[in-house]
Structures are given as structure tokens and as C-alpha cells.
Amino acid sequence: MQPAIEAEVVEAIIRDGVPLIGAFGVTVTALGAGTATLVMPCRDDFVRPGGTITGPALFGLADVALYAAVLSRIGRVELAVTTSMAINFLRRPALVPVVAEARLLKLGKRLAYGEVLLFSEGEAEPVAHATGTYSIPPRA
């Protein structure tokens, strides 16, 4: 099954429709039907005391990665919104780009549920695991 939207379109939706995260410099590197891989660069303003990437930047990346996975199945539905999201920080991320791998676990008419694993680029062990639910607006 092919994705319902192109990666470049998802990237533009993130940049224009989610401007805070769009300003992070996130790129969509792969998009499948129900999956998305995004990369967030490591920037000086993401580094907090202790030499780690701040949790809010990681959370934002996880949220927008799941959004991309949802859009990969339902197409350009910009009013799909997060209804709940939880994240577990598993280990300190390295000061390198962060890779988000999102996948949908369940897609219904009004809700989509999925998970996101975050990795320091080049590492095999995840630095965080997130799960979330998106609300899909009714079709007109």
C-alpha cells in the first residue's frame, strides 16, 4: 500500500501548520502507509544543563512524527489533532540529530493510535518511546 500523501507535502504541512516544530528544522526522510521517519537536527537551543537534549524538543518531534504517520494513511487532513500522548525517556540522547520512527497501530474512522521510537542518529537503542492518539475530524 502506498502512502496517501507525499513526504514533501507532510513536511510543508508541519512547517506551515505546526510552526513551532517546523522551526525545529525537522525533515521527513521516509513515509510509508502508516509509518513515518523524521529527523530533527541537534541545535544549541535544544541542549539543556547537563548536556542533553531538552524533553520538550523530543516530545514535539514524537508528536509530529505520529502526525506524519496518521497523514500517511488519511491524506491531507490538517485538522487531525493530538488527543493524548505519553512519552517515556529511556536514556540520555547524544548531542546528534534525533531520528523518530512512527507507526500506526490502529486506525479507525475518528481515532488513530500509534507509537514512536526516538533514537540518537547512528544508535540502535531508543532514547524515548511515545504513544499517542489522534482525533480525525468527520469527513464533510
Automatic annotation (TrEMBL):
Stored InterPro entries: HotDog_dom_sf, PAAI_dom, Thioestr_dom
GO molecular function term, any single one: acyl-CoA hydrolase activity
Domain Thioesterase: residue ranges: 50-125
Coiled coil, from the record: none
Taxonomic superkingdom: Bacteria
Pfam families found in the cross-reference section: 4HBT
Stored CDD domains: PaaI_thioesterase
Keyword terms: Hydrolase
Keyword hit for rRNA-binding: no
Protein name (record): Thioesterase
Source organism (scientific name): Inquilinus limosus MP06
